[in-house]
Amino acid sequence: MSAPRLTVIVSGIAAAMVLGVGLVFLAQRGVFDQSLADTASPAPLSSSAIPDDRPARVMFLGTSLTYGAPWPQAVGEALSRCRPGGVVVQTLARPGAASPWGLEALGAALEVPPPDIVVVEFTANDASLARGVSVRHSRDIHQRIIALVRAAGALPVLVTMNPAIGRNGWERPGLRAYEALYRALAAESGAGLIDVARLWRAMPPEALARQMPDGLHPTPEAGLAVTAPAVTAALATALCADGAA
User: Fold this and answer.
1) What is the pLDDT at residue 49?
2) Closest Cα partner for 229 from 56, 13, 26, 78?
3) What domains, with CATH codes, occur in the chain?
4) Which of 84, 108, 144, 161 shows the greatest Cβ crowding within 10 Å of its Cβ?
5) In the chain, which stretches have pLDDT less than 50?
């Protein structure tokens, strides 16, 4: 199966319809500028390589921002409503994991049946001084992840996540460089990009702090309101007949 190409940058107006519910949730609490919904739009993607008569298989590969969080399952449920065959979600994530772990874990997970889409997020922990993963090393590892996913016939999608603040922010002084790396890798390789970090960074500092009590992990409600709709809107262009969930 040849993998389709996805390029998604959270900008424009079309995804406002998908992001609206989540952003209104935050706007009503003084957390989010609702006008940001007018700057969210995924680029369309043809998904002819994924048959409609079977479940689309989506793997979420990442850190504690994915592990145990409700947003990946919410994405799968939303996408299942637009596909006759539904969507099956697999989460391959570990608290504290960085991209070297992801590469190793992925190699053992791409078995039959392989996923159709692999959503990757390691910026938060690759940026951690405690992990010792330089931007150059992260680039090398992610290039290998992208190649491995494609070799399995799947679509690699890189996702920038929420920022880190407070003590967790001090531990990750170069986080923006790792976010920029994802953008560069997507542009260079043709991998998918969902730039969710731009949504999170648009929040006022005090509001962002309320949504991430420990300075790194969004509350379940915040993840469902921001990350889930953005990822859903992006993947819908690949998996839904009309490009929207």
Assistant:
1) 66
2) 78
3) 16-44+54-239 (3.40.50.1110)
4) 161
5) 1-47
